[in-house]
Amino acid sequence: MGKSNRKDWANRSVSFVPQIVQPENLHSTSDIDDFVVFSFQNMAKSYAIEDCQDKKEKAFAVDKMREISRKTWNELILRRKQDGGFERIERKKFDLKSIPDGIPADITAWYIIRFHGNNGRLIGYRVQNTFYITHLDHSCTAYSH
User: Fold this and answer.
1) Which pLDDT belongs to residue 66?
2) Residue 10 maps to a domain
3) pTM value?
4) Which run of H or of E encompasses 126?
5) Residue 34 lies in a domain
């Protein structure tokens, strides 16, 4: 991109129309072409990032999040869980040892993304294109495997 294009781009007027999300679409999976965004808003006690004392494991988790944030949900859907995709488990069939406060009652599934080979898990739920991480499970103790 040359200098003239940068200047033209900077002077371009952009209109922003906020999108109102209707409650019935809040947990829609129709945003599969959007890039994955992470939130750490509702992390479980003992499974938060600051609870991971192993710097190496924390680095593996951050590397995995960085890798995933460059992908769309559709790209993750098309991958096997062992190859950088995710595992989706129905909420009623998944027994997490600690569920933090603030998890919406209408969340129907948990998503699990592996990091550091098979040694760690990012566990959370999805709302549109955001993956709300509730557990950074670096020791695979958050649920029975």
Assistant:
1) 93
2) no
3) 0.72
4) strand 120-127
5) yes
